[in-house]
Amino acid sequence: MRLDELQPNEGARKTPKRVGRGRASGDGKTCGRGTKGQHARGSVRPGFEGGQTPLHMRTPKLRGNTKKRSRNIGLFRPDYAIVNVGALAVFEAGAEVDHEMLVLLGICRAGKSGLRVLGDGSLEVALTVRAGHFSAAAKAKIEAAGGSAVLVGADSSE
Hints:
Blueprint: H1 38-41, H2 55-58, E1 80-84, E2 96-97, H3 99-105, E3 114-118, E4 128-131, E5 133-134, H4 136-144, E6 148-151
Parallel strand pairs: 1-3, 2-4, 3-5, 4-6
């Protein structure tokens, strides 16, 4: 097969409908848009509901830079890097694990508000894990392996 032999599959390319070419064509005069009305004259912007208050204006807004009031809008919501206990098994016994070390190893991403450790997986080595939040299962598994879970950061009161 050569480049000059390539062609699209059967039915993949369709010629566009030619409208406004006279009454005999079947799509003359109003060109398939009907008679008068909003859609016959032009297009309306996306989200326009015919004069009814649109959805984005009807929904209630949560304003303010507080943790409790602004949870739904996502603007001030902290975005945590999430790591399961099973991913910490790559470290040697006695290692101190924090967010920066996990980013260097590619286990979690940088630029997050902090680190959350969740309890999926198992841990056999004793580690000192420093994070902003631990689930109850994660804390229990870390301490059962002989390690310690240390809360750090501003959200350590959670």
